[in-house]
Amino acid sequence: MTTYLRPRDLDEGLHARAEHADWTVLAGGTDLLVNANHRAAPVGMIDLWRLADLCFVRVEKTSVAIGAGTTWTEVERHPAIRAKLAPLALAAREIGALQIQARGTLGGNVGTSSPVGDSLPALLALDAELEVASVRGHRRVPYREWCTGYRTTHLAADELIIAAHVPVPDATTRTSWRKVGTRRAQSISKVMGAAAITLDGDVVVSARVALGAIANRPIRITAVEDAVRGQRLGVAGDAARAALRGAIQPIDDVRSTATYRREVAENLVARFFSVS
Amino acid sequence: MNVTLELNGETREVEVTPWKRLLDVLREDLRLTGTKEGCGEGECGACTVILDGEAVNSCLVAIGQCHGRQLTTVEGLAHGEVLHAVQRALVACGGAQCGICTPGIAMCASHVVDRGLLAGADDVTARAKVRELLAGNICRCTGYQLIVDAIIVAAREVTR
Q1: Residues 6 or more apart from A230 whose CB is under 8 A from it?
Q2: CB of A112 within 8 A of CB of A151?
Q3: φ/ψ (deg, to 5) at B129
Q4: Smaller CB count within 10 Å for chain A: N or C?
Q5: Is the pLDDT of residue A187 over 90?
Q6: From edge to edge, which strands make up the β-sheet containing A173-180?
Q7: B135 touching A (Cβ < 8 Å)
């Protein structure tokens, strides 16, 4: 029978993680419990759901710290996240539906690291930093370096995800997030993306552009970021579209063809740089 | 593992493996078969229950996680013979067809109504909101129109 542990605090959780590398760590279970009745039960489970040390949103001077245990319902409703980190609030609202948003957590999305994780391009575009911890101590990893491949990350076997530290974009930076799926709710994204574009008037000073569901992990599109620098909005959209064409090899799967994904991704990126 | 939870207002104990899905424990161990299984993937909402005040898919919750928690299933929605406002409205509006999605819809809708998630919305906005809030409950008879009508009626009745 599976051993069950619900740590009282982070310290107990970290010690359990250090001792039992083969146990399943879960929070809301929205990913790990899918078809659980048809899959082998884990040896043990470390249940982080509602662990107080991981459930917080702290608005700091230049950033917002979002605890790994924060649910998408909480992200979507938080006034500071809505006002300052719009792509994340918009992503939260389109993750699954109400039932999934109530259980799915930021830490879960980042830990599962699915190429179709809806919040992940938002974290890339906002240049978030992740805080992880083990009994050895805490460390921070820029989110752009987090994903190492298909559902693999820089998380060590004895570590837990603590929080995302998300810098608040300044007043000259406009942000966007957009998901395309077969329907608004529930459907797994065909393409989604986010952007943070710093402007001087209508000229792009710099941009971060990220896409999900087109590669084996969420990715920044540096070719687009380079192509739009110094361009006016509108023209920058054409430049972004052209640059994207050679920069991605979208996947071809049961949900969409590569051709469709490429066209949608180009439209999406071009729209980020359109005159608003 | 011994799991103790407050289920529909009563303390219940069950001896199960903690990885077993809440949905299966409800149906097999506790014989509460009002909660239905549709997809088993968190897509269809047929297994929706209220756990610690939130509408969740019981197919995606491990029973170990429910120890010490408060749970309401469709069997606990009515108070004795008195139906919940959402149940009355579903009956009055004919908001059901084959019925497999109905318990999940009733649970999700009761959450929407009890939490006042439609409060202050005019009719057009409220209808759009219901469609978004109930987007995780799939009816394959495609009978959404009357279901939406019912939730609007129930929300009005509760706020009045």
Answers
A1: A203, A204
A2: yes
A3: -65, -40
A4: C
A5: no
A6: A173-180, A191-200, A203-212, A219-220
A7: yes
Last residue of a domain, which of B53, B76, B99? B76
Same domain assignment for residues B52 and B94: no
**What span, in angstroms and rounded, lies between the C-alpha atoms of A81 and A63?**
10
Pair (B142, B89) in one structural domain: yes
Which candidate from A37, A41, A186 shows the least CB-CB separation from B43?
Answer: A186
Overall domain count for chain B: 2
If you compute the radius of gyration of chain A from its CA atoms, what whole number of angstroms results? 19
Q: Which CATH architecture has domain A51-167?
A: 2-Layer Sandwich (3.30)
Contact yes or no for A100 and B48 at CB 8 A: no
Asked if B77 and B87 touch (Cβ cutoff 8 Å), the reply is yes
Superfamily of domain A173-272: CO dehydrogenase flavoprotein, C-terminal domain (3.30.390.50)
For residue B119, the enclosing domain spans 85-159
Q: How far apart are CA A99 and CA B56, in angstroms?
A: 4
Domain ranges of chain A: 51-167, 173-272
Above 90 in pLDDT, residue A161?
Answer: yes
Calpha distance A121→A138 (Å, rounded): 24
A43 touches chain B (CB under 8 A): no
Q: What is the pTM of this model?
A: 0.96
Q: Which amino acid is present at A163?
A: A
Report chain A residues whose CB lies below 8 A from the CB of B62. Answer: 26, 29, 33, 36, 45, 47
Task: Collect the ranges in chain B with pLDDT lower than 50.
Answer: none
Nearest to B19 among A36, A38, A98 (CB): A36
Based on the domain organization, do B139 and B104 belong to the same domain?
yes
Handedness of CA B122, B127, B133, B134 (dihedral sign): positive
Quickly count: other Cβ atoms within 10 Å of residue B132's Cβ.
15
Q: Given a cut of 80, is residue A218 above it in pLDDT? A: yes
Distance of alpha carbon B125 from alpha carbon B155, whole angstroms: 13
